[in-house]
Design a protein that fits this description.
Layout (H helix, E strand, L loop, with lengths): L7 E4 L4 E4 L7 E6 L10 H19 L3 E6 L17 H9 L3 H18 L14 H15 E4 L2 E4 L16 H5 L13 E6 L17 E3 L1 H13 L3 E7 L6 H14 L5 E7 L2 E3 L2 E2 L10 H6 L4 H9 L7 E2 L2 H22 L12 H13 L4 H13 L5 H15 L22 H16 L3 H13 L2 E3 L9 E3 L2
Parallel strand pairs: 3-4, 3-9, 9-10, 11-13
Antiparallel strand pairs: 1-2, 5-6, 6-7, 7-8, 11-12, 14-15
Helix pairs in contact: 1-13, 2-3, 6-7, 9-10, 11-12, 11-13, 12-13, 14-15
Length: 478
């Protein structure tokens, strides 16, 4: 685009919008904090990856060659940001009677399958266990000036780097409440670089190091892996807003200690906000959380959840409810049907007459304004209904806009959006047969038979949608 808008991104480090200026001309290098694969990822976790994918797609749309890394934490870290407590991988392995390695492999596969179902482009997925030796060398390099050893392991002294915690913009008061006290720590915010295996314990995931047999601290892996794969400094580091308070400040401290000086390792730090349900922030700590599969089991297509996330700005809290998801699903159906109408050359378009370049520029302006996906969706809908004599060009334009939003509109078919809920008492074939029978009854004005069939379907949680403007004949609800 000749008049492309500058890409403006909100930098959590400066709390300002900044123009994206790549370190390497024509390239964009992005690192996103990945999952700890000890359990299923809940849909709040998946919001972070939808956001990161939208960022990556936007960078590609703007013409940059993208390198995107999402690490896989397959070596256990603790059950919170604490430096004490249970190891997540070991705890899951004991509970399920499997090896920690099998646990990690299984949940990584599930995570990657969820990424695919959400149409998230597959980034590089390096595993933390592949970089343990590099982590030991990194720790060895920074230990003399920045670390001290306790009985429980090697700890980073946060007073040895300039302006620790500036990303969180706090005196670590909130962060300190999330960190358990460890005897001997010099400062409450100090964190583990290497955790020794406690005496008398045998862990499945442990390595020899200069500080004893044990495992690396959680924060260390991201510093080591981002530098190894992207170099330092690199362009953008993303994660959930909860990482802004402890995990990412600790990464920055490690980066500074390892040679970044007053730099942070990444030029821009970006954070998506929480997904909220009516019980509060969604998390795995309570043991009750929604997975993507749970949405599918209720009859929702995974891309309805992606659309629901895109309807809110990534820096805004997003409330999850089944009604909100249903509304997003309806909107997705409208988009799919809009594409279907475009493909039918016999159907006349009725809508505003707009030049393709106007729509393209409006979309570019929206997505360039710190990924304003709510506005970008409106422009996409405008592209679907605008009047044009060149239908193929219009379809190409919709495909171009959808390359950023990732809703797969040129591939999705109406039949793909009919997902039978897991606990449905009736099959789709049976539904269609009853609806055909009901159609015959209505044509014969046998309304008693028509109502009887409708009631029969209602008893199986099938809502007959007579007169639905979308043209959907029925909906299954559980």
């Amino acid at each position: 685009m000749d008049n492309a808008a500058p890409l403006m991104l909100f930098n959590s480090l400066t709390r300002t919008l900044e123009p994206f200026a790549p370190i390497h001309e024509g390239e964009a290098r992005v690192y996103s904090c990945g999952p700890t694969v000890y359990n299923y990822q809940h849909i709040g976790n998946m919001r972070a990856y939808i956001f990161a994918d939208t960022l990556g797609r936007t960078l590609s749309f703007k013409g940059y060659k993208l390198t995107h890394v999402i690490n896989i934490t397959d070596v256990g870290h603790l059950t919170s940001d604490a430096d004490a407590g249970d190891d997540k991988m070991e705890k899951a392995a004991a509970a399920q009677g499997k090896s920690a390695w099998d646990i990690a492999r299984y949940y990584q596969e599930v995570f990657e399958a969820d990424l695919a179902r959400l149409n998230i482009r597959k980034p590089a997925h390096p595993r933390a266990t592949e970089y343990v030796e590099a982590m030991i060398e990194w720790a060895r390099a920074i230990a003399p000036k920045h670390c001290y050893e306790l009985e429980s392991g090697l700890y980073f002294d946060t007073s040895t780097v300039a302006d620790y915690g500036r990303l969180a913009r706090s005196a670590t008061e909130e962060g300190e409440r999330r960190i358990e006290s460890v005897e001997g720590k010099r400062h409450a915010a100090d964190f583990a670089i290497w955790r020794k295996t406690p005496p008398g314990e045998n862990r499945q995931m442990e390595w020899d190091s200069p500080w004893g047999r044990g495992a690396p601290g959680w924060h260390l892996e991201c510093s080591v892996m981002s530098e190894a794969l992207l170099g330092q400094p690199f362009d953008i580091h993303t994660g959930g807003i909860d990482h802004r308070e402890i995990h990412h400040p600790n990464e920055i401290a490690q980066n500074q200690a390892h040679g970044c000086g007053t730099d942070s390792g990444a030029r821009i730090w970006m954070h998506n906000n929480f997904l909220i349900d009516r019980r509060g922030k969604m998390s795995k700590s309570s043991g009750e959380f929604l997975t993507l599969q749970a949405l599918v089991d209720r009859g929702f297509h995974p891309l309805a959840y992606r659309l629901m996330c895109l309807q809110a700005h990534y820096r805004s809290e997003l409330e999850f409810s089944w009604d909100n998801l249903a509304a997003a699903f309806t909107r997705l159906k409208r988009l799919v049907m809009g594409v279907a109408r475009l493909r039918d050359l016999n159907v006349a378009q009725k809508g505003p007459i707009l030049e393709h370049v106007t729509i393209d520029d409006r979309f570019d302006a929206s997505i360039s304004a710190d990924l304003n996906t709510p506005e970008a969706l409106l422009v996409l809908e405008l592209a679907l209904v605008s009047t044009t004599a060149d239908r193929e060009r219009q379809i190409s334009l919709v495909q171009r806009l959808d390359s950023v939003l990732g809703l797969n509109l040129l591939t999705l078919e109406r039949t793909h959006l009919r997902i039978r809920p897991k606990y449905a008492q009736i099959t789709e074939t049976e539904i269609e047969a009853l609806l055909a029978e009901r159609k015959v009854a209505r044509a014969a004005k046998d309304f008693a038979a028509s109502d009887r069939i409708r009631d029969q379907l209602a008893a199986c949680n099938v809502e007959v949608m007579d007169g639905d403007p979308l043209g959907w004949d029925w909906r299954l609800e559980i």
